[in-house]
Write a structure and sequence with these properties.
- The complex is a heterotrimer.
- By secondary structure, chain A is an all-alpha fold.
- Chain A is built from 13 helices and 2 strands.
- In chain A, strands 1-2 form a two-stranded antiparallel sheet.
- In chain A, helix 2 crosses helix 12, helix 3 crosses helix 7 and helix 8 runs antiparallel to helix 9.
- Chain B starts with 11 loop residues before the first strand and ends with a strand.
- In chain B, the strands form 4 sheets. Chain B has a 6-stranded mixed beta sheet, sandwiched between helices. A 5-stranded mixed beta sheet of chain B has the order 14-11-12-13-20. A 5-stranded antiparallel beta sheet of chain B has the order 15-19-16-17-18, with no helix packed on it.
- The chains are: A mainly alpha, B alpha+beta, C mainly alpha.
- Chains in contact: A-B, A-C, B-C.
- Chains A and C meet through helix 1, helix 3, helix 4, helix 5 and helix 7 of A and helix 1, helix 2, helix 3, helix 5 and helix 6 of C.
Amino acid sequence: MSGPTGRIPWSLPERTDRRRAVVDAGLAAVPTALAVALGVVPLAVLLVESLSPPVTLSNYAALGESVYLPVLVRSLGVGVVITGACLAVAYPVTYWLAHVCPVRYRLPILISFTLPLWLNYVVLNYTWVWILATDGIVNTVLTAGGLVDRPLDLLRTASGIGIGPVELPGPSVGLGFVHIYLPYVLLTMYVSMERLDYRQVEAARDLGAGGLRVFRDVVVPETYAGAVAGALIVYARIAGAFATPQILASPSEQMIAQIITTQFYDVLDYPFAAAVSVVFLVVVLVGFGIGALSTDVRAELKRW
Amino acid sequence: MSGGATVSDRSTILRTEGLTKRFGTATAVEDVSLSVGAGEFFALVGPSGCGKTTTLRMLAGLESPSGGRIEIAGGDITDSPAQDRDTNLVFQELVLFTHMTVAENVAYGLARDGVPRDERRSRAAEMLATVGLEGFGDRDPTELSGGQKQRVALARALVNEPAVLLLDEPLSSLDRKLRAEMRAELRRIQDDVGTTFLYVTHDQESAMSMSDRLAVMRDGRIVESGPPESLYGHPETAFVADFLGNANLLTGRVRDRRDGRVVVDAAGGRFTAAVGEGRSAPASGADATVMIRPENLRLRGDTFAGTVRDVGYMGAHREYVVALDAGPTLQVRSGADDGVGVGVADAAVVDGAGADG
Amino acid sequence: MVNPVAETSDRTGAAGWVRRHAVAALRGGFFRTTVVATAVFLYLPVVVVGYLSLSPGSQPSIPLDGVTLRWYGAVLSDARFVRGLVTSGVIGVVAAVAGTGLGLLAARTIVRARLPGWLRASVAVVVAIPLFVPTVVVALGIGITAGRVGIGFGLVPVVAGHLYWVLPFSTFLIASRYATIDRRMAEVARDLGADGVTTFRTITLPQLWPALVASVLFAFALSFNEFLLTFFLAGSGVTTMPLEIYGKVRIGATSFLNAASVLVLLFSGAVAAVAASLEPPT
């Protein structure tokens, strides 16, 4: 009863599917080309440039012996400290927002806390000048209130607290950084905190755990993946920031982006600048690698 | 195994030949050949995973066959993309367009044929009335009940007047009572509109009650096809016998042949069994497998001797599990009064009537 | 209410004192205090600058000895600054629209394309580079590349840089929405006779719309405020608002700058407000 099937088996499933795949690949190519041209190619160029005059590691050697290595270390340290400070603030705030705050206020408050992400960070950095200057708001209030005899040196002053190159950021640059990056951390932490099942907190309380224990045993394990994921993204931006230290840091607190920029613009030493950036990038990526070792963190990142 | 002979005397509207689908090394559908007559209500039944949904999707054009051909009204559509085919599919999960109103959903397929707006609107309204949802046009599909959504999906597919309407288990998400209602509704609508329906389901009850003809699938192949009465009354395989309804299967030996019926010795009893149409009766002395439907057995008879193992009260009837002295177990279904007084472990002699081989 | 944990833990001496008071603080207004403090922290500087922008003199005194809007006028009539504003606005629109378009293509590729999984994942990774690689590194790379290739500085490199920066945000905003759309709707549409383009237009696009709008608005804000890439790529012929602000900040703090800051913040805030009113953030 079955006559000739009349079809060459292998051509049928392939044809329509292959056609669609070609179209999809074409559509994909446009944004990918942009991302590759501006994301991957420049990094490759940097690598090549850093090894010139071809092909030598002399630029890296120079970096090792230069005054700039401590700058790199300090930048990473600042990244870690500021990220830590942001997380310390974000935890209670997002916990409150996600689980304690009345529902109808949640969205408006979240929006107002993340609004600064839409604002210009150069301007936001600048605003701190007026707060921390010797004739700024803080000092005016303090001297007028008789709390201090002379104005405090808050603006562009190093903190002086530190070991070797790793130093606590000075008040102005510290506040400036936290001001800019706190909204990022608030946003990522909120998403993670929202996913925390509040009933676990209730269960822990029911079993007798007080605030701190609830935090340690329930909140942290459930949300640390989100915290780390957010922290990874933010710490790199902070370590590599340019405008904030330019505007708010003291000259002794120079950060790596400022070095790179000077080398590019003023000294015109492209290879050296490239070498510095490559080293910085590698360190940052290693940091990512370490953070992303945890599968929880990776899952969190995938969510974004 | 029959698989392709057209029993219906209507003109063939849909035909497949050797339809096959492979996913990597796994074969989902193997050499499926069937014919559906115009205006017929055809059901494709089988257990989960038997390949019926894949077959349906190939007919709709949503999967490309690995081999074989598909013809609609005589034209080869095997290579046609889904949008060009004269078929429409009612999806199992319905998949209504949530961002459109009910009327917009129903009218969606009409836009492509260049049908003007006013006509689209009136045809959609007409179809909604046909499925019993008159006036529902402006409603939000997410607000409808399961049965109502069902009808919208149906209307959306039917309004395009396809040559064949394909339905993928549309009733599976409904509760029992609603399902029975919708079965009657579907049959009514099909009679009303006259479109050929190809209905895929694992629920043999629905398939048998609604279809003019049906085909049973298993492991990617068609096992048997024909009108529900033939398949139920005279199945050719034990699988089909047991799949459509319940079956008691006994092995025995043929003693004698008499006017197209055979006398069989099985399970300690002797009785007469009918032979399916178009099949020749097995010779005397040959081994045979006999199927007896539970409703064709009754207690207090004289064919088989056994003991009642279990009694189930089903309201309209009782179901007994009887362990025969000769070994096998029989399911007996009796009317509400027949078995009154018979309990577990009572001795029972069961009568066989109308058994089939 | 007695806290059994506090009772059973070490409560002698200083540790106990600290613990008891910490617990009390927690139960008290700790959360509320932190939240209020955070809100004040985030917005006080802005309020301060707003206040000081009303100063009659170019160097405000605290407290102000007068209130005037003259600096706003001065800002809006400063040719160079206005040029920066307009350029930023135009680039912003281009980056918003083109960036959203590219983001849509990228999102579709990641979520829907009939391509091997590893390929789609690679696209996601490449698109996400701006989020992870420090901007200064990329800026340097593009700057050197542009120089070597001969494109140099100017408007085109700046726009390209902004597109690159905006792409991941647009892509992931749209992709997260895209992933929630029922794939089978497209199948149904096809079954009912719609071709690829029609399906996209009538089924996918209407459902993606809120994400597209959000992407346009956010991309505009990102581009409007972008500083570092522009700093590297603009050269002398092109100026944007952030560059203008930065230049003036390096010179010194003035009322002019305060007024300019307020204007810029209000504008971006307005864009954010529009976005917030249209659709709650994911």
